[in-house]
Amino acid sequence: MGEQAKVDLIRFWKWLRYLIVDEYSMIAKAFLALLSRNITIAKGQRPVGSSPSDRLYHPSSPKDTPLMQAGRQIYEEFDTVVVLKEQMRVTDAGWKDFLHRLRYGRNTHGDMEMLDTLVLVTPRHAVRRQWNEASLREHCARTGRRLFICPAEQTVPGGRALNLWERHELASHSGRGSRKRRGELPLEVEIAVGAQVLVTRNVETDLDITNGARGEIVGIVVAEDEPDFGTATVVRLQKQPRPVSCRLPRYRSLPSA
């Protein structure tokens, strides 16, 4: 490799701290080794997977070149797999710009501020609910809004409410039923005016009311027979509020509503 090529590599990788490779399993072993070599030259570090070792299993093919053998060793260094189950097309221009800067490691202070305002999403229910509860309480403390704890309405086929025996059976079996059968719905939901909400199902794809759309609670109307709340900052409702109004700012071809 010529001196100018080395200078170009160093300049390109100077401010980059990590590399994300899409379709990693489709990369040839020799290409992976060359990629490692170039990064090594640019960063002045030892190549990944360069430690000498004598493998007692899975010997390399005798037809593999030294580059292919090095690429194979690098591939086996990774022990974490992330499986993409759903892919959503990005339509937000600001988010596209952020992803473009992220690709080249050129994110700005404004990007970090934007990330700090995002809703955290995790498949782990316990962690996600702790995050949501902490964020909602911080919002209520900062804005002076009242926090409402809303109970789920449990019914049987036909719309009839559960009787006392059925409620007892439901409580005694809580947490042991199939997640799919229960729809992964909690028994209580905490809400407040001004809180951020996230759509988790595709409701109306033509209007962009889809999984991942964000909005804000702008109004909560409680049932008329609810007891007086007084000055309580946290209220456990007896019935579900009717209705809860949300503003979704990204309806396609429509103003926020």
UniProtKB/TrEMBL annotation:
The domain of life for this entry's organism is Eukaryota
Q: InterPro entries given for it?
A: PIF1_helicase (IPR051055)
Q: Where is this region: Disordered?
A: 45-65
Q: Which PANTHER family match?
A: ATP-DEPENDENT DNA HELICASE (PTHR47642)
What name has this protein been given in UniProt? DNA helicase
